[in-house]
Amino acid sequence: MAKVIDLNHYKKKRLGKVCFTPWNQRFRESYDESTTLKDLSDKTLLYLASPGEKSTNAFYEIIHCVKHPQLQKRKQSISKQDELEMMDVHLLMADRVRFELISRLSWIVEYPDENIPIIDLISMFQRNTYKHFHSPPKLALDHSHYSEFQKLIDREKVLFIKKLFVNALIVFNNRTNNSSEK
Questions:
Q1: Cβ contact 53:96 at 8 Å
Q2: What are the C-alpha distances in Å from 83 to residues 24, 59, 69, 115, 118?
């Protein structure tokens, strides 16, 4: 009897293999279509969370591949509208990576999309319709500013969490570097 092949599963698996190839090489780790931000090593998370051209380029590699897999080999340019969408996806992914970093410090306990595979998060993003841009992460109950946080509206809560990032990056960097020296 013939086997039934789930074409969508095959396409997603192939997309994960192709799009994660640069990351697999760069970070010397293995990622696939089911990889979530929680699956990233601390070292990789720190690299992606750090502001600058290196992390931006890493994001754009995977975003471009997921959003425009047919253009990967041809090096064709994309439309201005697609460029704007890629910038929005980059901002979304940078936020989610930073939320994951803050989560690993136990400063937040939950954030939007935390269990969605990276490939799916990029794929499902639609400019102007993405509903979680202003959904705030949940600050840990034992955080020193929890009562202040609770009084804020959702958009202010997102900004509050984003303000934690600079200090979180320093703490996470120290923790990651100290643990790798042992």
A1: no
A2: 25, 13, 15, 26, 19
Helix segments in the chain, DSSP class H: 7-27, 42-49, 53-67, 80-104, 118-124, 146-150, 154-181
For residues 23 and 45, what is the distance between their CA atoms, to the nearest angstrom?
12
- 125, part of any domain: yes
Considering the domain boundaries, does residue 97 fall inside one?
yes
131 by DSSP, 3-state: which? coil
The verdict on residue 1 lying in a domain is no
The count of domains in the chain is 1
**Would you say residue 72 lies in a domain?**
yes
Range of the domain at 46: 7-181
pTM of the entire structure? 0.87
Asked whether residue 161 carries a pLDDT value surpassing 50, the answer given is: yes
Q: How far is CA 86 from CA 113, 122, 169, in A?
A: 18, 9, 24
* Distance (Å, whole) CA 3 – CA 39: 32
At 57-104, the pLDDT tens digits run: 999 999 999 988 776 554 567 788 888 888 989 998 999 999 999 999
